[in-house]
């Protein structure tokens, strides 16, 4: 992740993304998906990840053509810049969270076939913009990442998720390789201590039964599906009505969700969909997705529910998004 030259007094014209004479254009732009994946795992926000990618490319094309040619590995250079931007954003995010209304939950992602970023043209999303959905983007795992210090999170994600050697991680974090190794080790201890339950083979069925019981306002059935110590967290960001503090206890959650269903009435339908790679639900009100629900399931019980209502975090689900219920039926038909 080193360069032979740094931006300085070179007066050559900067490279531009539209310059057909740029021999590295294809290689540079092919890094976009990886950078978006990195940014989302580091920041828990697709919008912020996209901003980081834009800023990273802006800095690349601010280099002169001579400086660009002097970079030994453009992909490594882009990763270094993106990682440092994310590290700075994580530091400032902690201060912003102090004034955030209610709990902050990472931005939920739909399945690629259901997905629109809200920043693309009418033709849909460029596949390069999609985030790869795997165990490192489940809501439970992202919440654990969010509890880490910025340096821990960057070191852990780069090394343990993206498999970068500690020597390269050190250049991004600005510490020695030994210090980065200690940061990653500390992060692993956090993961083990607060380890989210692995995906349950029957998770889709449990979520489906939860939806059915919720629609029926069947409190006893809901209690039977919830862990006695379950937690329900909601994020409205001050822009949507929701409970500001986590609901703790299966019975309390069941009764609260039954009240929500009664208040929603016929205006709301609950639909099954994929949220961050796992079975989840969306609530559609008057034809618009108003809430996205992610679940953590341990054994046969729901251990945690995350409900995201902040409209700023639901743009990938709202902008010309297909009906998740239709998409689910299409997938089932294809599997039969």
From TrEMBL:
One of its GO terms (biological process) is DNA-templated transcription initiation. Residues 29-94 form the RNA polymerase sigma-70 region domain. GO terms for molecular function: DNA binding; sigma factor activity. Keywords: Sigma factor, Transcription, Transcription regulation. Coiled coil: none annotated. Pfam families: Sigma70_r2, Sigma70_r4_2. Residues 140-190 form the RNA polymerase sigma factor 70 region 4 type domain. The keyword Transcription regulation applies. Residues 1-27 are annotated as: Disordered. Residues 1-13 have a biased composition (Polar residues). The keyword Ligase does not apply. Belongs to the sigma-70 factor family. ECF subfamily. Interacts transiently with the RNA polymerase catalytic core formed by RpoA, RpoB, RpoC and RpoZ (2 alpha, 1 beta, 1 beta' and 1 omega subunit) to form the RNA polymerase holoenzyme that can initiate transcription. This is RNA polymerase sigma-70 factor (ECF subfamily).
